[in-house]
Amino acid sequence: MASQGTAVLHAGDPLGLDALRRRTTLWTVGLGLGLVATVLAGVGIGAVSVPATTVAEVVGHHLLGWPGERTWSAAVDAIVWQVRLPRVLLGVLVGAGLAICGVALQAMVRNVLADPYLLGVNSGASSGAAAAILFGVGAGFAEHALQVTAFLGALAASLLVFLVARSAGRVTSVRILLAGVAVGYALYALTSFLIFASGSAEGARSVMFWLLGSLGLARWGLPLAVVAVVVGGVTLLLTVWGRRLDALAVGDETAHTLGVRPERLRLQLLVAVALCVGVVVSAAGSIGFVGLVVPHLARRAVGGGHVRVVGVAALMGAILLVWADVLARTLFAPQEIPIGIITSLVGAPFLLVLVRRLHATAS
C-alpha cells in the first residue's frame, strides 16, 4: 500500500484520480464486452441450442439486413428473434434498473442494506398484479392489463410512502426508511388477502410465480420500449447527479455546505426510483437482492464516487440478471423456476457476509 501511495504521489496525483479513472475505464470496457457476450450466450442457450455466430447473424439480419441470404431455418429465426432476444433484453434492462435504484437508495437513506424493496414499491406492484390476475382489474387494457395495474400499484405505493414520511415533518432518511417498511408490509398483507379472497388455486399459483419474478412476459412492443426509456433516462439522471449523491451519502450537514438541499434531492430521488422500480416490477415481477448486492460490488470495483458507480452497477446488474434467467429456465427444463429464487440464492449468502463485516467494523 505504501509503495502504491508513493508512486501516485510522485506522479503528481496525490488522490490517485488518474489511476481511478483508468480503473473505471477498464471495468466499463470489460463489463461492456462481457454484456455483449452475455446477450449472445443468453439468447443461444436453451432447449434448442443456437450457436453465438448464428445468433449474431439472425440479429444482424433483422436489424441491418445482413447477411443477404438466410442460412438458418424459420424455427431458429423465431426462437432467436421472437422469443429469446426480447427476454434477454428485458433481463438486461431489469437488472440495470434494479442495480441503479439500489445505488440511489443506499445514498438517499445512507444505509448499505437498502434496496428497492425499501420503498414498498415492489409490494405495491404485487398488489396491482394480484388484482389483475385474480379479479380482472384493468381488463380494459387488454393484454397489457397486468403491466398497467402493477405499475399503477407501484406508483400508488411510492406516493403513500412519501405522504407518510412527509406527515411527520421534513422528509429525512429515517422517515423514508420507516415509511417504506410500514407500507411494504401493509401492501404485502393486502396481496395475501387478495389471494385468499379469490379462492382460485390456479390464480394463486400465477400470482405467487409473478411475485418471485419472471421474464416470461417479454415481447417486442410498447412495454419493452417503456422499460428501455425509463431505465436509460434514470441511469443518465443519476450519473448527472453523481456529485449530489456523494454529498447526500456523507450527511445532510455536508450536503448543505456543498449547496445541496437534502430534502428536495430525496424527494427527486424518491420519484425517479419509484418510477424506475415501478416500470421494472410491472414488466418482470418482484426480483430481490439485485439492488442490494450489485451496488456493493460496483463500489469495490471503482470506488465510492457515484458518477463512476452508477454506470458500472448498471452493467453488472444487467449481466447478473441475464445469467440468473438462463439458470432459471434451464436448471429444470422444460419447467421454469422463478428468477427470484436464483437471485435470492446468490444474494442471501452475500448479505450474511456483509452483515458480518459491518459487525466487525462496528466492534
Strand content: under 5%
Helix count equals 15
Number of strands: 0
The end-to-end distance, rounded to whole angstroms, is 24 Å
What is the H/E string?
HHHHHHHHHHHHHHH
CATH class: Mainly Alpha
CATH architecture descriptor? Orthogonal Bundle
Largest sheet: none
GO molecular function, one term: transmembrane transporter activity
Keywords: Cell membrane, Membrane, Transmembrane, Transmembrane helix, Transport
Organism: Nocardioides cavernae
Membrane topology: Multi-pass membrane protein
Description:
The chain has about 375 residues and is mainly α. The protein has one domain: ABC transporter involved in vitamin B12 uptake, BtuC. The chain is about 75% helix and about 0% strand. The protein is built from 15 helices and no strands. α9 packs antiparallel against α12 (about 260-285) and α13 (about 290-300) packs across α14. It is globular. The two termini are about 25 Å apart. The model is unreliable at about 1-15 (pLDDT under 50). It is found in: Cell membrane. This is Iron complex transport system permease protein.
